[in-house]
Amino acid sequence: MKIVLKNIEKANYTPDIKSYLKEGGYQALKKALTMDSEDIIKEVKASKLVGRGGAAFPTGLKWEFAYKVKEFPKYVVCNADEGEPGTFKDRLLLENDPHLLLEGIIICGLAVKSETGFIYIRGEYIKAYELLKKAIKEAEESNLLGRNILGSNFSFKIKIYRGAGAYVCGDETALLDSLEGKKGQSRVKPPFPTFVGFENKPTVLNNVETFANISEIILKGADYFSKIGSSRTPGTKLYCLSADINKPGVYELPMDITLRDLLERYGGGVKGELKAILPGGLSSSLLTDRDLDITMDYPGVQAAGSMLGSGAVKVINKSRCIVDIAKRSAEFFDYESCGKCTPCREGTKRAREILTNITEGRGSLSGLELLKELQEVMYDTSRCGLGQAALNVTRSAIDKFPDEFKEHITNKRCKVNICPLNVKRKVGYV
Ligand SMILES: Cc1cc2nc3c(=O)[nH]c(=O)nc-3n(C[C@H](O)[C@H](O)[C@H](O)COP(=O)(O)O)c2cc1C
Ligand code: SF4
Questions:
Q1: What global pTM score does this model have?
Q2: Which residue from 259, 314, 313 is spatially nearest to 291, judged by alpha carbons?
Q3: Atom of ligand 2 at shortest distance to CA of 186?
Q4: What residues are in contact with ligand 1 under a 6 Å CB criterion?
Q5: DSSP 8-state secondary structure symbol assigned to residue 277
Q6: How many helices (H) and strands (E) does the chain have?
Q7: Could you report the per-residue pLDDT of 346-385, keeping only the tens digit for each?
Q8: 125-146, pLDDT tens digit by residue?
Q9: Which residue ranges form the domains of the chain, and what is each CATH number?
């Protein structure tokens, strides 16, 4: 069952318009040009497609909100920033099937009555950027982009904008500020971008994988799509398997797959003995072997106390120190915090200090209590998802592996060789 990788997995498929047209590309756009906006949106809503960028918001509903606002111009933005550690699925699509993405974006423009789309692409994705530029040119030359597309009265253009490497710019509102040429910092929500977005105009913003699902929904219908995989959030998902797993990579699978099947049947099993899993990258909470039978759709992972996010499944084996993992995740969020709101700007720094102290043998039990409090305050009061999720790894590590923290604090010992506590002791710092 392939939707977004349906072309890529075919032999001899190349990322150009010739290959895409040969596989039936742009037929969905042709069909959409014969439909009313309301009918396109109705189809996407009925498919029950939810965003694949992390927040899992219903895509059709987002499009409907933007369509109903009677303010022009309207914009469509594709989020190709892909900054979550462990996520590398959008890159696969961008580098191997750029026209599938363009078709989804153009159909969205047609549905919400926009004439301009942007692709905000991660700065390091140079190959993808070059291929996208080429794909846009090919689409323009074939009258699939530009004025009066395929002889209709619909005109649409797409521009590419390269990000400068800030994780926070993957957040939709920071992305919009960056796109406007400002420093990328998150805006207060509401208002949401669908109502007040790029240059304060209605803007639909979706992830690469979300747009890549659109042509299949238009061509085969909502009924077909909504029966695939999980009935709660139907369709397939691109899961990125990485770290201690035998066969790392991107796997497109229906969303009713269990975590156990994902790791064992597709990932070839855990390398070593399983300790924990991060199902949605560094922003998610740790799961353990007790959670192996959960369904890997959005509600399934949430019910287990974590989140699927962009589908970055990082596997951790018993050779890793969980305290060190918490410390390194805190370092990442401290570095990436945009500094606009106090709980996140200060909280990420304090968390990093406390965790560094624990990993270096200077920790205290009161520091552990402070970390828990910090996590609660930051979750409740940070302005955007970065600060709200920054201590998810830490909090779940403390809750699920309390003995490892206590061992570090009370006995100043760690049984994992690569733990900084052991490494520093060996060279005589502690
Ligand atoms: C700190 C942060 C980083 C994010 N990074 C990304 C990203 O790299 N790509 C992405 O599509 N969404 C990212 N998101 C989610 C976006 O804000 C937004 O929900 C998403 O792009 C909407 O598209 P979707 O509905 O198709 O998922 C991020 C959110 C936060 C808070
Ligand atoms: S939560 Fe962090 S990243 Fe988000 S606005 Fe506040 S300081 Fe910036």
A1: 0.97
A2: 259
A3: 5
A4: 51-55, 57, 79, 81-84, 167-168, 170-172, 205-207, 210, 384-386
A5: E
A6: 20, 8
A7: 999 999 999 999 998 899 999 999 999 999 999 999 999 9
A8: 999 999 999 999 999 999 999 9
A9: 17-226 (3.40.50.11540), 236-317 (3.10.20.600), 322-427 (1.20.1440.230)
